[in-house]
């Protein structure tokens, strides 16, 4: 820990070297990141409440000439459950951070799309990039039962 910040309220934000604790958190298996135009979020809910709906909260830190599509348990279903349409004209992906525009959606997910056991949410950036700076930067993703 940097002694300059020891004892201040900044303690928990200035702990350099936290990457060395990776093996404490994941001693047996590494995290798997599958990079491409489709990201997969795999999960196994303890129980799916039926009837009822869920909300997928999806926040992007930045988008540049992108279209994000959301599908649940079927990568090929058309139309997707949700699509942003063409979004973004900032250049935060190129590390011009002050130019980023925050995007937030709350997407209704009917319980009929979820099942007991293994589920997958597919997030597809459907606009093929003409540039390495075209795409999205994720900030926050959460699936929760609606009250």
UniProtKB/TrEMBL annotation:
Gene3D superfamilies: Galactose-binding domain-like (2.60.120.260). It holds the Pfam family CBM-like. Residues 19-143 form the Rhamnogalacturonan lyase domain. Coiled coil: none annotated. This is Putative Galactose-binding domain-containing protein. It comes from Rosa chinensis (China rose).
